[in-house]
Specification:
Strand content: 15-25%
Bound molecules: beta-D-galactopyranose
Radius of gyration: 21 Å
Order of helices and strands: HEHHHEHEHEHEHEHEHEHHEEEEEEE
Shape: globular
Strand order of the largest sheet: 7-6-5-4-3-2-1-8
Structural class: alpha/beta
Number of strands: 15
Length: 403
């Protein structure tokens, strides 16, 4: 972030630099739709991790509490055998339910002996031998969301345990916080313990995401501001729900994230949650899986998949190198124009057109250069007189590289 942007952020202004010269009319530079709140005081946590948005796989949307050691190791091997690890998907995250129901006599977290019989250090070593990193889940409260032991009262002990086990990435949830607790303070305390144990561990936080249902709400934005100083990535969106259609979920996440662009920078990322490519429980269509990857990439969200890695869709969607490159460029896209229900979001070298309504919408977009669709045959998009004419279906998404 430039010093001008940081100053603007602190003063609560919204600034809107125009990356792509030929954007659509009119520019939506007013703050009412995406206003920012001021930053609150936190102690920045020293971290050397996540210079680019983390990439990998997490079991949660596939396995929930049925996660096992063998399932984690199978997916780690599949990241390598599919070539996705070489594309950058290098972190395997064990989500909730890996812990035994009680701590040890010295208060340490223990793995569930039935599902992780060889223990986490064994899993970490096996994952490291594959050239990958291991992530693990914990909760800042007295219990995890699934009711396993929480880390409250044990932050230093748990951070040291994770470090001693060889864990490279910690996802901290916020279920079962004491009612008087201040979320940002506790997250900061855990981060301080984690960076004291090992500054290289990636620290992922889960914000009270229900608040994110009101994009730009000052309470939520203040938490994002705190997280951007204390962690490497922070969840800004609620869990996926099977009852919410793919297009609605994807566009709602985008709308919630657009006002938060100034908090993203190298080592600090707004997290839109997991990619559902190859997930047969949610059953997104192929185009919805592509749309989701487009939005995550334009927003430089971490790309953590939670599906069957060997499915054809996983290979096509997760393995799209143009999309990965846009994500890993590490600059969050910004809203540069709106026309009816169409949002235009851009960053250097790429542009995303999104229909935020269920009703199909025609768009005329003045192109800033040669557009190439990131999906399909990879040929240049046809334009007329310097304009791209397209009709986007309800919740349709189009992403192009721009030269
Ligand atoms: C939720 C979180 C999910 C998953 C789950 C585990 O709060 O959003 O990603 O971690 O807890 O119980």
């Amino acid at each position: 972030m430039s010093s001008a942007e940081r100053t603007a952020r602190i003063l609560g202004w919204r600034i809107l630099p125009l990356f792509v010269a030929g954007a659509l009319i009119p520019l939506a530079a007013t703050g009412s739709r995406h206003g920012l709140a001021s930053v609150i005081d936190v102690t920045p946590v020293a971290t050397t991790a996540a210079a680019r948005p983390p990439m990998g796989w997490n079991d949660w949307y596939q396995d929930r509490c049925a996660v096992t050691e063998s399932e984690i190791l199978k997916n780690a091997r599949e990241l390598v055998s599919t070539g996705l690890a070489a594309d950058g998907y290098d972190t395997v995250v064990i989500d909730d339910c890996w812990m035994a129901a009680t701590r040890s006599t010295t208060g340490a977290l223990l793995p569930d002996a039935a599902t992780f019989p060889d223990g986490i250090p064994y899993v970490a070593k096996a994952v490291h031998r594959l050239g990958l990193k291991l992530g693990i889940y914990a909760s800042a409260g007295t219990a995890t969301c699934a009711g396993r032991p929480g880390s409250y009262g044990h932050y230093t002990q748990d951070a040291e345990t994770f470090e001693s086990w060889g864990v490279d990435f910690v996802k901290l949830d916020l279920c079962h916080l004491p009612s008087s607790a201040n979320t940002a303070t506790l997250f900061n305390q855990f981060g301080t313990a984690l960076s004291a144990a090992n500054r290289g561990i990636v620290y992922s936080q889960e914000l009270p995401v229900r608040a994110a249902r009101s994009p730009g709400s000052p309470t939520f934005t203040a938490l994002v501001a705190a997280s951007s100083a204390t962690s490497n990535m922070w969840r800004i969106a609620p869990d996926e729900e099977a009852t919410i259609a793919a297009g609605i979920s994807i566009t709602q996440r985008l709308e919630a994230d657009l006002p938060l662009y100034s908090y993203a920078s190298a080592g600090h990322w707004n997290d839109l949650d997991m990619l559902l490519a190859g997930n047969n429980i949610f059953g997104y269509s192929l185009s919805a899986q592509e749309n989701q990857a487009d939005v995550w990439a334009m927003e430089s969200s971490p790309m953590i998949a939670s599906g069957n890695l060997t499915s054809a869709a996983s290979l096509t969607v997760l393995g799209n190198k143009k999309v990965i490159a846009i994500d890993q460029e590490g600059v969050q896209g910004r809203l540069v124009g709106t026309q009816g229900s169409i949002d235009v979001i851009a960053k250097p070298g790429s542009v995303l057109l999104v229909n935020t309504s269920s009703v199909p919408a025609a768009v005329r977009y003045k192109t800033p250069g040669q557009l190439t669709n990131v999906w399909g045959d990879g040929r240049a998009a046809s334009t007329t007189g310097g304009y791209l004419y397209r009709t986007l279906p309800g919740y349709g998404v189009l992403m192009f590289t721009v030269r």
